[in-house]
User: Which sequence fits this backbone?
């Protein structure tokens, strides 16, 4: 019962909104406490998750967090609870918010040509967080406290949305001046470059990837009149800056760091998502026949996924069999959770339930924290009327991923099948709350209250409802 209360206290407590903020008259002296930074980031994330641009793909986001935490371990604040997430936006951009929340556009993931290049961008953003650059600028904005500060980050995202949509255009105009004020200063960029390079080197990546990526991005932009990537607007890249980075890395040996398989597979998923299903099938089939566009394992992974999307289950199963043979002969690709997840999806498409359930049971034990696999396993359990097993599985997963709305939604379905109405509506309320759907969360808590519960449970719900209504009123203001 305390999950939602903790969320509300963390993100929307009255103290956070109206008290404890510094004197904002002098930007250089504007400082937020770590708790306040986290509150701003959490509140922003609820709104980001509620938006259409949030890429709700556990495999992409888990990969970003896996890579990100490899870098965070070598940062100045390794204990800070960073969260890395992707946006379904093919413009080239990445950004950091207070409290350790770092967003990466799908377009940037595809533009980087190596994992070291992607790591160089993430390490730069991590440095902005650990040096509190964004927090300093947000604290320096004249506003009404936490809610206003969190809105700044959201306004920047809204300004990058479809300019032809009238509502987005209006929001974009309102955010224009904010965007200009929040562009990082030259001093901020130089500091983030220096610290980012240190993180990159300590983490075992190729430090030469940072100037190479920035130089390539700058040169490509010169050919695109009036179409500067957002990353160049929010992180101004000058020839002097690139030269400074090159001077810092020139004494370092050129370390050829191989890309992880997951880096290649995630990029393949995003490439496929950009294309129509027939075009994706043609693209990966051509890549395999001409032996171009990278590794055959990666190409065939993309082909199997595209065939499944096109409901060509028989051919997908045939290609998967070849893929698994290739994987067995490649130690670097063996026992990979993304390939296991795809295997399960093909098995589900063949409707071989007994065999598929056994496969998922074993796979969930091998990869107990791999959310995409767990989602599919729980859904399959529900299809086979095994809701009690699904509840146990999902409850364990929620302890590992307490802000995962999909897990709560699956848990709500499980309780509904077991006709446990109180638990069903409570789980659904948590799912809605973590997705920023405050009205939906209120409605589900009201339904849970009507379904009955213990005195303690009902008292807690009343408290959570008051908090939610305060949040809705604050958002209207």
Assistant:
């Amino acid at each position: 019962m305390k999950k939602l209360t903790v969320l509300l206290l963390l993100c929307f407590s009255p103290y956070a909104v109206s008290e404890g903020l510094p004197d904002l008259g002098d930007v250089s002296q504007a400082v937020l406490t770590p708790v306040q930074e986290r509150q701003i980031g959490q509140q922003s994330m609820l709104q980001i998750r509620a938006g259409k641009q949030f890429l709700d793909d556990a495999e992409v986001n888990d990969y970003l967090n896996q890579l990100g935490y490899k870098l965070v371990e070598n940062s100045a604040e390794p204990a800070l609870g960073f969260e890395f997430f992707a946006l379904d936006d093919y413009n080239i951009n990445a950004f950091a918010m207070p409290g350790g929340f770092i967003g990466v556009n799908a377009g940037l993931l595809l533009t980087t040509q190596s994992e070291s290049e992607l790591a160089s961008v993430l390490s730069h953003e991590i440095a902005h967080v650990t040096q509190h650059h964004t927090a300093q600028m947000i604290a320096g904005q004249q506003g009404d406290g936490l809610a206003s500060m969190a809105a700044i980050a959201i306004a920047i995202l809204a300004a990058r949305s479809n300019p032809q949509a009238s509502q987005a255009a209006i929001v974009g105009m309102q955010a224009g001046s904010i965007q200009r004020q929040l562009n990082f200063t030259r001093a901020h960029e130089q500091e983030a470059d220096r610290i980012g390079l240190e993180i990159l080197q300590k983490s075992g990546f190729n430090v030469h990837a940072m100037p190479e990526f920035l130089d390539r991005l700058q040169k490509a932009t010169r050919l695109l009149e009036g179409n500067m990537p957002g990353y160049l607007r929010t992180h101004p890249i000058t020839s002097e800056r690139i030269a400074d980075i090159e001077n810092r890395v020139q004494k370092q040996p050129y370390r050829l760091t191989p890309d992880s398989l997951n880096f290649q597979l995630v990029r393949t998923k995003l490439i496929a998502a950009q294309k129509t299903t027939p075009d994706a099938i043609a693209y990966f089939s051509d890549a395999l026949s001409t032996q171009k566009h990278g590794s055959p394992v990666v190409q065939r992974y993309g082909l199997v996924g595209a065939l499944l999307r096109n409901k060509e289950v028989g051919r997908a199963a045939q290609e998967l069999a070849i893929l698994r043979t290739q994987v067995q002969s490649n130690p670097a690709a063996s026992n990979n959770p993304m390939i296991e997840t795809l295997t399960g999806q093909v098995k589900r498409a063949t409707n071989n339930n007994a065999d598929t359930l056994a496969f998922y049971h074993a796979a969930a034990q091998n990869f107990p924290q791999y959310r995409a696999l767990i989602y599919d396993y729980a859904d399959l359990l529900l299809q086979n009327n095994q809701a009690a097993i699904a509840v146990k599985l999902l409850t364990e997963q929620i302890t590992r991923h307490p802000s995962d709305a999909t897990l709560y939604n699956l848990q709500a379905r499980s309780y509904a099948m077991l006709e446990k109405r109180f638990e069903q509506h409570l789980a659904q309320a948590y799912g809605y709350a973590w997705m920023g759907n405050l009205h939906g969360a209120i409605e589900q808590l009201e339904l849970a209250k009507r379904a009955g519960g213990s005195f303690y449970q009902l008292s807690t719900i009343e408290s959570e409802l008051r908090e939610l209504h305060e949040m809705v009123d604050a958002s209207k203001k």
About this structure: The chain has two domains: 31-249, 264-476. The radius of gyration is 24 Å.
